[in-house]
Amino acid sequence: MPRRAVITADSWGQEPPLRGRRAAARRASPGRLGWYRSRGEARVSGLGRGHARGLTDRTKTDDGVVLRVSRATTEAVAPVLVFASADQRPAAAGGHIHRGPGAPGLVGQYVYLAGNGRLGVVAPLGPSGPPQATLLDLGAPSSGALGRGERGELAVLTGAGVGTIVDSAARPAPTSLLATRCWDPLAPSGQPIGVIAYDVTTPLWSDGATKERFVALPAGARLAARHGAHGDLTFPVGTVAVKTFSVDGRRVETRLLVQHEVEDWVGYTYAWNDAQTDAELVVGNRLAALPGGKSWYFPSTSDCTACHTPAAGYTLGLEARQLLGHGGALAQLAQRLPAPIDHEALAKLVPVAAPPPATSEQRARSYLHANCSSCHREGSATGVTVELDLRIDTPLAATGLCGEPHAGDVGIAQARVVVPRAPERSVLVARLRSLDERRMPKLASRVVDEAGLAAVETWIRELASCP
Ligand code: HEC
Ligand code: HEC
Question: Is 307 in the pocket of ligand 1 (CB under 6 A)?
């Protein structure tokens, strides 16, 4: 049976710099990963301080490294199956019998980290003779340690933080949009069946595409509100969010975000056919040509979770302040909440081109909130590299915008992330303007958002001081 394991980590899998012997030692000595519920932290033991240092130097304890935890994202990889022969015995450090959720195909089997980013699996009752190990590719730069996560799921240390391993074989995705049975086959271009249509105040910039958005909730299921005043909504298992992108009046892509189990959101994306009658599943990422010399990037499943982060609660635009003032969607969702949302307490978002009384600060901060804060916020894995919190209700002094850049000066002398009155010396602006590897966000955008850029530049030009 073809199988694949999927490693999940809250980043696009960037390895932090590890050099020389230290790197070699870390790769060679897997440790154990444990979850410390009282602290809400994952901790690695069995690694010397030096070995673990390249992973994060943020917080250290005597017995290892404390990482800011980011659980659950996904990368679909091609199946890789290698049967080790009897004399290639697996290095069994860090292994255990898996009993937890997330990877039903691995339950009852001995799992260990086999190096080269692979998961070794040994069945307790194999064929007669010496035990055989199956090596499953984790498809992401891995990892010095394996252990159990908070709920007993398989947790693994990656260069970017703590990830969860799930077995994706359990869940083949429908190969076309109509096969999802969310749409009426007679009206594939219409809206999906039984959904709430909604719109947001400040959309993600998607190279000028227009979008339609829907969310479907299981009948009778309740919602929860997170962080009170932030207006984030927590959706029930079984929720499906849908976003369709059109360019020049033609549907190009439909993205589905499905919550299969608690906090286990998986993204799927579909490319529309020329006849606009159905869309086919995109496996991996894809760059496609569009009429008029344009191009379109279809993100992979792991791209989805780079932005739809656990720290942001997975769904991004489906938060009360984004939905406020856009028809009945918020009221419909609010009916399923235990308590009403206090609209007055929400920091207001405005569109990038909002007329006064919207201020330049509101326009810019709204833009950064909507486009950037899913990664740049407290608790997200990008915090290992840079220290920005771009949520709209984070006071300017606490955003990190006024500090020095942590990820390079991008060629600007005496660079700061934001220099008051000087957009040209602000790394933030350079990142928005850039189309190379400095681009922010790095994913799924290949055209500069002139309106967003202008809003940010105007705000910086008018900014008297940075606290
Ligand atoms: C560059 C970051 C980024 C990537 C990559 C990305 N998204 Fe999103 N997505 C967003 C943001 C921001 C929003 C909310 C704003 C909006 O809807 O315009 C959003 C909204 C959505 C929504 C509506 C529900 C919600 O969360 O607000 C769906 C569905 C969705 N994305 C699916 C996907 C899928 C599936 C993928 C991968 C195939 C993906 N996205 C990749 C940033 C991203
Ligand atoms: C998918 C996650 C993600 C999103 C979305 C994202 N960023 Fe980033 N950002 C990163 C990562 C990772 C780094 C550090 C690595 C690098 O330099 O690319 C970074 C670095 C930066 C830096 C450099 C900060 C420093 O200290 O050097 C700036 C400025 C920045 N991002 C701005 C933005 C802006 C503005 C947006 C929205 C338009 C945005 N980012 C959206 C992940 C993201």
Answer: yes
What pTM value is reported for the model? 0.74
Domain count, the chain: 3
Ligand 2 pocket test: pick from 207, 380, 388, 404 the residue with the most ligand atoms within 8 Å of its Cβ. Answer: 388
Whether 306 is in the pocket of ligand 2, judged by its Cβ within 6 Å, is: yes
Cα 457 to the chain's mean position, in Å? 27
Residue nearest atom 7 in ligand 2 by C-alpha distance: 441
In 3D space, the residue among 166, 202, 309, 188 whose CA is nearest the CA of residue 254 turns out to be 188
Residue with CA at minimum distance from ligand 1 atom 39: 304
For the stretch 72-118, pLDDT in tens is 222 322 222 233 333 343 333 457 887 777 676 677 777 777 665 56
| Phi, psi (deg, nearest 5) at residue 103 | -140, 70
Domain boundary among 170, 187, 216: 170
pLDDT, one tens digit per residue, over 22-63 is 333 333 334 566 655 555 555 555 433 333 333 332 333 333
- Alpha-carbon gap, residue 12 to 303, rounded angstroms: 7
Query: By residue range, what is the domain housing residue 280?
Result: 178-345
Residue 352 lies in a domain: no
